[in-house]
Amino acid sequence: MNKKKRNVIDKAYELFIEKGYHATSIQDILNHSGISKGSFYNYFSSKSELFKAVFNLIQENLQMERDKLLIGENIHDMNIFREQISLMMELNKRNKLNQLIDDVIVSSDPELIKYIKQFKFIFLHWIYERFIDIFPRDKEIYLMDCAIIFTGIMQNILYTSHALKTTIKVKQIVDYTMDRVITILEDISTEGVHLFESEKLNTLLPQSDYNDFFNNEFSVSTLNLKKVIEKGLGIEEQKMTTYLNLLYFIQEEIMNNKEPRKFLIESALSTLKRTEELSNLKEFLQYEQILANMKYYPIS
Prior knowledge:
Layout: H1 3-19, H2 26-33, H3 37-43, H4 47-68, H5 78-94, H6 97-107, H7 110-134, H8 143-163, H9 170-191, H10 198-201, H11 217-230, H12 237-256, H13 262-273, H14 276-279, H15 282-293
């Protein structure tokens, strides 16, 4: 990113936190960042576009830190998920994300309100996908309800504790919320009741260039390589888990991000390429070639 553009984003972020989004004018941003009005409009079409850039930058950094916790770990480990949620809550607090969101809601800007709502659905979808990882497959039909319940409980605990000026440790909130969801999941699966279908959530998400992931050659190549790894090939269980997690990470990054983070994808691919068990497999060579066609290459 252009250094001057990044400086405008950083300076605008400072002002949005200090004065609020609605109270910050474009002239305030020009004065604080030291650029001309012409330069500003070369970078952003409006103040709302600048807000999106601020918000996206915060989210990219948050997702990178969140996803780092998965690399080399077992995606089915519920404790890793708890750690991810705890980290996200800490980073949201540090970045004053809730304050930014509240300022936008108060501003009554319909475009930004729609944008914020879309972001909330993206987060809900991520929770649902992680629930699929950590709960048994026979519970999958109930997991969208549980994802909604999880986010609802957690958000209301945060809002209520803030209103009451009560400090509750992040870990305590995460453990409390997760334990309630485990109980609820057992209850609704026993009764066989659920309210929401996961497929309908997809209509609320931004369209991705890779929405047809499961129908394209990248999908087939990824699934073929996973099957080969899962067959064993004499690979130690711990290594097998690591390789599968790296494939999962690449898949998630490409599927769920409008602008997949090239460096992280290529770093994960490089780790896979350096493994003796995989580097010469025809399935891996095909997988590597398809990623190369998508402009992702191992880091030499």
